[in-house]
Write a structure and sequence with these properties.
single chain; 120 residues; mainly beta; 7-stranded mixed sheet; 4-stranded antiparallel sheet; elongated
Length: 120
């Protein structure tokens, strides 16, 4: 089994910054991609940013130029640096991993979520 554990959420003022971290552990053979999604109450979970094994990234239009995703392959860790935060960035942020647990078997895994609140 694979576990994803997030950290780094909290309360920040508009215009401020936060960095989220997510560590993957367990039966990991190969990580295809890791990313961050967010979800507000009553809304669908949406992609914020994703990074693949080769370092390629993609971002939601709403966060381009403000958020940056990176990964440390040796530590199976992905980071989301969030700058110029806005109140509309307030959500629960979930780490996502598309991970092979063996040569032939891969699944999609989720963290427990971390709350980000942007408010003065």
């Amino acid at each position: 089994q694979v576990q994803l554990v997030e950290s780094g959420g909290g309360l920040v003022q508009p215009g401020g910054s936060l960095t989220l971290s997510c560590v993957a552990s367990g039966s990991i053979f190969r990580i295809v991609a890791m990313g961050w999604y967010r979800q507000a109450p009553g809304k669908q979970r949406e992609l914020v940013a994703q990074i693949n094994a080769g370092g390629g990234t993609n971002y939601a239009d709403s966060v381009k130029g403000r958020f940056s995703i990176s990964r440390d392959n040796a530590k199976n860790t992905v980071y989301l640096k969030m700058n110029s935060l806005k109140p509309e960035d307030t959500d629960v942020y979930y780490c996502n991993g598309k991970i092979y647990s063996s040569v032939t078997s891969w699944n999609e895994f989720w963290g427990q979520g971390t709350q980000v609140t942007v408010s003065s």
